[in-house]
Specification:
four-stranded parallel β-sheet; single chain; Rossmann fold; 10 helices; elongated; 2 domains; 343 residues
Length: 343
């Protein structure tokens, strides 16, 4: 039975991370008598043996707290001599740590898979507000992001209606448009633009004009990774992120003047940004994150390393890290299901 377990949160922050930590620590300490430490700032803490003790007292009341008490970073293993598997194994052994629980998105799960293949006892918990991680129906943080975006749509519609303007809300979604799809559907958007399904400017303007001619104020929701036909890559003018990828954002501000010029309708853009990541998790995310934290302890107790807990329907199951694909995209049928309502 693994007795001392390390927990880390890696990648972007996300509502529900603390609930996972709480669920895991409470289950492990109360049922299996395990001891827990939390690595500070993701993989960095594991690589450098920078950790804090986690017990029942330290996780008290965490289910409702946003962010992560452990901190996070974009630092990953394999990038430095200290981050090589043999050094990590030695560091874990020196500190009496029998296994690692990695909470993160697709990048974290890929790193966890590589580490497992190199002999590190590790399991995963899926985290991403984008809901684009393969292997799980939903990831915690997504429901909170959708709720925040939906409220923003509701607020923008009131000011749009008052001023007879077309309003565009930009939400997160580099490769997958799940937040835009769900929030746009919930908010009754007149057009939803996502990376998986490009729409022409002519079509977008036709929807906007149709709405305006009915005496309504058009509401458009666009994911940051959306591209118009002819664009070779998503809009980015903000440099690179911690992984060397273009930092996306601003497609709404590109679309707004185009729509205004072609339709003659005053158009305003709002980029929601990191507001989607912050704040307290919804009740759905608190429950899902807690369940994932509880069930990942069973993987640890059974030494089922190299696996990730996941939500399938209403059940928590586990999948092999090796089976995870790059991105869970919005399928065509889901998009076209709501596209008939546009305009």
């Amino acid at each position: 039975m693994p007795r001392r377990i390390g927990i880390l949160t890696s990648g972007g922050d996300c509502p529900g991370l603390n609930a996972v930590i709480r669920g895991a620590v409470l289950k492990g300490t109360e049922v299996y008598g395990q001891e827990f430490v939390g690595f500070r700032d993701g993989w960095r803490g594991m690589i450098e043996a920078d950790f804090m003790s986690l017990d029942r007292t330290s996780v008290r009341g965490l289910a409702k707290e946003g962010g992560t008490i452990l901190g996070t970073s974009r630092i990953g293993p394999y990038r430095t001599p200290e981050g090589q598997p043999d050094r990590i194994l030695a560091t874990l052994a020196r500190n009496g740590i029998d296994g690692v629980i990695a909470i993160g998105g697709d990048g974290t799960m890929r790193a966890a898979h590589l580490l497992h293949a190199d002999g590190i006892p590790i399991v995963g918990v899926p985290k991403t507000i984008d809901n684009d991680l393969d292997g799980t129906d939903y990831s915690f943080g997504f429901d909170t992001a959708v709720s925040v975006a939906t409220e923003a749509i509701d607020r923008l519609r009131t000011t749009g209606n008052a001023n007879h303007r077309c309003m565009i809300l930009e939400v997160m979604g580099r490769h997958a448009g799940w937040i835009a799809l769900h929030a746009g559907t919930a908010g009754g958007a007149h057009a939803i633009l996502i990376p998986e399904h490009p729409e022409s400017l002519e079509q977008i303007c036709a929807w906007v004009t149709s709405v305006h001619e009915r005496g309504r104020s058009p509401m458009i929701v666009v994911a940051e990774g959306f591209t118009l036909p002819g664009m070779t890559e998503a809009h980015s003018d903000r440099g690179l992120d911690g992984f060397g990828r273009p930092r996306l954002g601003g497609i709404a501000e590109v679309l707004a003047p185009m729509i205004a010029e072609r339709t003659g309708i005053e158009t305003r853009a709002t980029v929601l940004g990191h507001i989607q990541r912050g704040g307290v998790p919804t009740s759905f995310d608190r429950v899902l994150a807690t369940r994932l934290g509880i069930d990942v302890i069973e993987l640890v107790a059974r030494r089922q390393w190299g696996r990730m807990v996941a939500l399938r329907g209403t059940d928590i199951v586990s999948v092999a890290l090796a089976e995870l694909q790059e991105t869970k995209s919005v399928p065509p049928e889901r998009y076209h299901e709501v596209r008939v309502l546009f305009g």
